[in-house]
């Protein structure tokens, strides 16, 4: 954070608003501090790598998280490009000044390709180092540049002490040369100088005790930066302004060199050399930090399949994400070579960071509201004033940036459009499957996203009440959603309870069993009792009325020859995910350790299958096996193709830890029944004949007839 921004942007700020640049940096520091507090709160709640992308994935949809991650990755890459080119320029200047001291400057040092060449070589070198070892760059460079800046500040204060007070006052007047408008302009140009605190959150997963150290690191680094920036700007104005000129006029002539020339005025050649050394060190550390953070953002996205999963590969010995580092390094190097307008790209980077900072404030509010039972370990004071004021300020500066530099907004829109096309064509399906799995494995994500999923459980058989309630709570835990148990009192329209009490007796048996099971298992379910002569239509009505996310149905038997049964008619009416359980009497889900998923046909139930498998494995480790049975007549080439397809399906639906097997047999039903055994759970999908016509299918019926294993039949919504 310290150095690169102040050296690159102090001149622009002085030229825009004069001595009020000190106030511009101070106000930016206040806004950055508010933003850092929101970042620190979320980083303590989610101590993993990814920064704003990670926060968005936890609180928003996968599509919104990709959008945030995609633009933040780009902004970090462009920031790295800017610092790489800045390092190359100052390194070339350093070499030229050294050669000038010897009295001879070779012609090749004036070649315009020298600075980009140094930038490219340095980027490649840093990338290779990060690929070969873990951790940051070590503290020595940071210590060195802080020492250099301290000498510049102390030397300036010493010069101010020996200078007439009238001269100091004259150099500070007029303070606001362009009024409030100029002050706001300077703030918009220079805010990026304080951006670095967010890089700490981007690498939070590699920090020791991140819940404590990440917030501490953010706030302390920002405080240290302000303790350097504000005094340095003051001494540059007070003793670095030439006689007869204002700091605005002085900076307007050469904004890039103003810090070095001003330091030369009060420290002589030593001050000039100190600025060059500080610039080289600062640009180097900023390049290193942005390359490191950008690679970790890519790593976090690839683990969620919002970028290609190959980016998540780690080195066998170093455990570093060498592919993510390599790709990020190549992108930075490519932009160094081909980027036509570095200034516009830098403005786009600043615009993106400001927008994502505003989003981070909104996320901080949502996290605080939705985390009553598990609040963040670090909580920012003066809530909600901190995120509201910080968010409005960041958004206002972003709007200014878009107006002041229209090309910045255009570049951001082009990159975002490219990302949208890539996501929809290449990443969407696997990213959404991963997101479904993450929510099922960690139900708190539903609460963080502001949803209260509801599963409807119609129960008519008291013997499977326990199994149904347990499975429903597995799909939607009561502490994040609702389990609504529906009991339908089936009676004719003209039913008289005084004359025929049997429906009431059956209802009482079911309700007693439901309540006993839920209390015994510690599941807080709700109950709903309705009366209808057509129970299937009543279930469909209640599911639609309560906008259920899923419906869990029980089934005593699946016969081999019946089709278009009332239950199958209900499947066609429901527009939710449907899970149908056929289980032996008093079957208990906790006793099932093996899950068999036969694969064949067209599929189409991926999202529901992924959700179901992740839910079943959340509390208890289960052995999941994907099975494909192929006929003996299939060629070896086709078998290898089937094996690859099965491996891909298994990985997408259950991760890389599940088993998968292709068995050659002409009797698929008998093979599956044998693999299931008597205790394994079999998961099958319904057969879709049309938008509203769903059947169990002959294959499912035959398996149900040949095995006593519990069977779950799933039907995706719609």
Can you lay out the helices and strands and say which pair or pack?
Blueprint: H1 4-17, H2 21-45, H3 52-59, H4 62-101, H5 114-132, H6 140-161, H7 165-171, H8 179-190, H9 197-202, H10 210-240, H11 247-253, H12 258-303, H13 322-338, H14 342-370, H15 385-404, H16 406-441, H17 444-448, E1 454-458, H18 465-475, E2 482-490, H19 502-521, E3 526-532, H20 535-545, E4 550-555, H21 566-573, E5 577-582, E6 594-598, H22 606-616, E7 623-630, H23 636-654, E8 659-664, H24 668-676, E9 681-685, E10 687-690, E11 693-695, H25 697-706, E12 711-715
Mind explaining what this structure looks like?
The chain is of the alpha/beta class and 718 residues long. 62% of the residues lie in helices and 10% in strands. The chain has 25 helices and twelve strands. The chain has helices spanning 4-17, 21-45, 52-59, 62-101, 114-132, 140-161, 165-171, 179-190, 197-202, 210-240, 247-253, 258-303, 322-338, 342-370, 385-404, 406-441, 444-448, 465-475, 502-521, 535-545, 566-573, 606-616, 636-654, 668-676, 697-706, and strands at 454-458, 482-490, 526-532, 550-555, 577-582, 594-598, 623-630, 659-664, 681-685, 687-690, 693-695, 711-715. The longest helix has 46 residues, at 258-303. The two termini are 51 Å apart. The relative contact order is 0.10.
Summarize the structure.
The chain has 718 residues and is of the alpha/beta class. It has helices at residues 4-17, 21-45, 52-59, 62-101, 114-132, 140-161, 165-171, 179-190, 197-202, 210-240, 247-253, 258-303, 322-338, 342-370, 385-404, 406-441, 444-448, 465-475, 502-521, 535-545, 566-573, 606-616, 636-654, 668-676, 697-706; strands at 454-458, 482-490, 526-532, 550-555, 577-582, 594-598, 623-630, 659-664, 681-685, 687-690, 693-695, 711-715. The two termini are 51 Å apart.
